Amino acid sequence: xxxxxxxxxxxxxxxxxxxxxxxxxxxxxxxxxxxxxxxxxxxxxxxxxxxxxxxxxxxxxxxxxxxxxxxxxxxxxxxxxxxxxxxxxxxxxxxxxxxxxxxxxxxxxxxxxxxxxxxxxxxxxxxxxxxxxxxxxxxxxxxxxxxxxx
Length: 150
What we know:
- This protein is an alpha+beta fold.
- It has helices spanning 5-21, 55-68, 87-92, and strands spanning 29-34, 37-42, 45-46, 73-74, 81-85, 94-98, 101-102, 112-115, 127-135, 138-148.
- The protein contains three helices and ten strands, in the order αβββαββαβββββ.
- The termini are far apart.
């Protein structure tokens, strides 16, 4: 390496380092899939520290994001639905919620959960599945995925 190139390389490394420090870490993601259909999204709202969110504000933001995400996960009663979350979500615990009912009594602490909905849980018009990070005291993040049976 010549002496003339060294200052250019050092300047490039300095600029790259400054650029990385200005980046914000994206909200963690979750995916829902069934059959050959899947959807991924980042949390509509997320508390990166240990504080709980205002559930009504967070739910509104998640509903808005779900409405923007026009593609629904296609599924049928009796067909397995899988949910995958980023490890940071699994570390704090999360609940899968279908039709307003939790599918687990205790927070899920793994990155994957699967279940098979019944006809009552998944009506002909479809439903929404929510992923709610947190515990019984409050939530730290939420994702909402529309499900369709057509």
